[in-house]
């Protein structure tokens, strides 16, 4: 099985939209009350969720005139939130067809279909033109992409001169073996966790310059530990809960949710 197929199998389970709507209904949220905020627990798949998306949008200083591309957009939660916060236009690309189909429906439901466009495709071969975007983001996606040089080259290609790229990934910050599962991979076969230096080297090789780097570990481990365990019935092999396992790796200083901001020279 190819890495792309393994990733899509890991994430793409049919009926996602129905599960989201049923989950919201159980919380007393009907169709008229579905907003960025009510969706956030279900469509913001990175550490910190909507709070982190807002932090990134603020650090990017986005304006309504901007055009942003979200690499590995999932169901479009961050894309919709960024569009709603800043008024800018957002294009998202994701490998998993179920995510894109569900995200388009959620764009309609939230009234953001004119601002947010989602497309199925690989972030290593973006179906987008050169120099088309003022900003780019990639939130907790690089852990599934071994070719960091390829993704940095694609980000460079689609950014306008002077454009900025925010990477927010789980990165390895000390020596030690990773013990699976994690939310992005049940085993090492399709995990591509790397060190900050690897991202920086790939970005510089692509022509991007590092502007800032932030370790967002503070509070992340406790937040993940507080999440309810998915239950042993969902893990017949007796493996650890992925989120609690990730929390432990953050607590011990092996992994860190890390933000990096790069710029394409003018």
Notes on the structure:
- The chain has helices spanning 3-11, 16-26, 36-43, 49-60, 77-86, 97-110, 148-158, 196-206, 220-225, 242-251, and strands at residues 67-71, 89-94, 116-120, 133-139, 159-172, 209-215, 255-263.
- By secondary structure, it is an alpha/beta fold.
- The protein has a single domain (3-170, 193-217, 256-263), classed as Rossmann fold.
- α3 (36-43) runs antiparallel to α5 (77-86) and α4 (49-60) crosses α5.
Layout: helices, strands, pairs:
Blueprint: H1 3-11, H2 16-26, H3 36-43, H4 49-60, E1 67-71, H5 77-86, E2 89-94, H6 97-110, E3 116-120, E4 133-139, H7 148-158, E5 159-172, H8 196-206, E6 209-215, H9 220-225, H10 242-251, E7 255-263
Parallel strand pairs: 1-2, 1-4, 2-3, 4-5
Antiparallel strand pairs: 5-7, 6-7
Helix pairs in contact: 3-5, 4-5, 7-8
Shape: globular
How many H/I helices?
10
Across the major sheet, the strand order is 3-2-1-4-5-7-6
CATH 4th-level superfamily:
Vaccinia Virus protein VP39
Give the SSE string: HHHHEHEHEEHEHEHHE
- Computed over alpha carbons, the radius of gyration is 18 Å
Please tally the β strands and state the result.
Answer: 7
- Which percent bin holds the helix content? 25-40%
* Uncertain stretches: 231-236
- How large is the share of residues in beta strands? 15-25%
The CATH topology assignment is Rossmann fold
Which CATH architecture is right?
Answer: 3-Layer(aba) Sandwich
